[in-house]
Amino acid sequence: MSPVLLAQEQVARYGYNILNTYPHNINSFTQGLLYHEGFLFEGTGKNGQSNLSKINLEDGEVLMNKSMSQRYFGEGIEIVDDKIYQLTWQSHLVFVHDKTTFESKGSHYNATQGWGLAYDGSHLILSDGTATLQFMDPETFAPVRKVEVQLDGNAINQLNELEYINGEVWANVWQTDFILRIDPESGEVNSIVDLTGLSGQTQLGSSEAVLNGIAWDAEAKRLFVTGKHWANLFEIELVGL
């Protein structure tokens, strides 16, 4: 579904105010983003450039980094307990790292493509570029159930980076300025976050510099967003449209 149609659907829509602006590595092809215990964690993509990083929010300093073999194209990341899960795009592998040291703790098979990853407290939630969200067992990465994401009866594909916020799945729609807020039980889109114009507030590092990256600070109730090859990460608040 086109961005124009997304913007016209009769569901609640939100715009944004920028509360704070932080540095972001313009060379990072952002695939996965999360905020955990006071730090940002980011997974990046592209063969030969894919890595996992622990980052200081305020100044963008990389505190820890682990590169993938150049044969792999990294995708979304998520933390469950002491483990970081990192998807690959088309290699059908999910790498598992120790949260504290980034040391390898094994891998899992993923039958689909890997795009985004979130965690609802029980299951990892996987997007694969289609309209389907799969709920996976964290111990085995076996699928438990799935839902099709729909807006007024229309399936919405290109679901990319994910975040689980207050009982909803938030999903970037690839190559658009929209984030969908999704009911994880039904797959219905509850509302649309329209971030049109945000990319104009930062330097863009390539023609692929699209919105992608949602992180939620559950303790302080802070919402962060960024994009692939963006020079900044933004803390935003939503405003009704």
Please describe what this structure looks like:
The protein has one helix at residues 3-8, and strands spanning 12-23, 30-36, 39-44, 51-55, 62-67, 74-80, 83-88, 93-98, 104-109, 116-119, 124-127, 132-136, 143-148, 150-151, 154-155, 159-165, 168-173, 178-182, 189-194, 211-217, 222-227, 232-240. The longest helix is centred in the N-terminal third of the chain and has 6 residues, at 3-8. The protein is built from one helix and 22 strands. The chain has a single domain (3-240), classed as 7 Propeller (Methylamine Dehydrogenase, Chain H), CATH 2.130.10.10. It is globular. With 241 residues, it is mostly beta strands. The strands form five sheets. It has an eight-stranded mixed sheet with strand order 16-17-18-19-1-22-21-20.
Characteristic key phrases:
eight-stranded mixed sheet, Methylamine Dehydrogenase, Chain H, 1 helix, 22 strands, mainly beta, 241 residues
Task: Give the secondary structure arrangement, pairings included.
Elements: H1 3-8, E1 12-23, E2 30-36, E3 39-44, E4 51-55, E5 62-67, E6 74-80, E7 83-88, E8 93-98, E9 104-109, E10 116-119, E11 124-127, E12 132-136, E13 143-148, E14 150-151, E15 154-155, E16 159-165, E17 168-173, E18 178-182, E19 189-194, E20 211-217, E21 222-227, E22 232-240
